[in-house]
Amino acid sequence: MEIKKLIDEAVEARNKAYTPYSKFKVGAAVLTKNNHVFQGCNIENASYGLTNCAERTAIFKAVSEGENAFEAIAIVGETDGPISPCGACRQVIAEFCDENTKIILANLKGEYVETTITELLPGFFSSKDLKK
Ligand SMILES: O=c1ccn([C@H]2C[C@H](O)[C@@H](CO)O2)c(=O)[nH]1
Ligand SMILES: [Zn+2]
After folding, report:
1. Which residues are responsible for catalysis (predicted)?
2. Domain ranges of the chain
3. Distance between CA atoms of residues 103 and 107, nearest Å
């Protein structure tokens, strides 16, 4: 699947964002190695800290359907430059994406950059740190 098509999936998902507090809508889409797409949006809460970001929604949807090997993930928001995922999402992305996973950060103007998890979160905590 083309990068632009995955961004379109993220843009579509963004329309479902539940953002009565920030009004800042974000969409995400993951492409699994089995060629399935899972969309996600941000879901806010009156208890603000319980908000789930769009990329975590998409990842959790995929994993809960038995798909945890990702080819690519696209994230889009109405930002000046490409959107920048929060620290919590970077750590969750690190759990399920390897160095080959394309992480695409986009905005509504059609601008995007392709990056990797080590660029986004150098030295991330991983399961190999749990082994002694
Ligand atoms: O990459 C990002 C950045 C922010 N948000 C959400 C969280 C919150 O609902 C709103 C404002 O921070 O945007 C995401 O979903 N993904
Ligand atoms: Zn986040």
Report:
1. 55
2. 3-130
3. 13
Tokens matching residue 112 = 């995007």
- pLDDT value of residue 18: 99
CB 94 within 8 A of CB 126: yes
CATH number for the domain formed by residue range(s) 3-130: 3.40.140.10
Q: Please choose from 7, 26, 55, 90 the residue to mutate so as to test ligand 1's pocket, defined by most ligand atoms within 8 A of CB.
A: 26
Distances (CA, A) of 32 to 46, 50, 55, 129: 32, 27, 14, 25
Which residue out of 55, 78, 95, 114 is catalytically annotated? 55
CA of residue 24 to ligand 1 center, whole Å: 7
- Complex ipTM over 0.85: yes
Residue 125, pLDDT > 80, answer yes
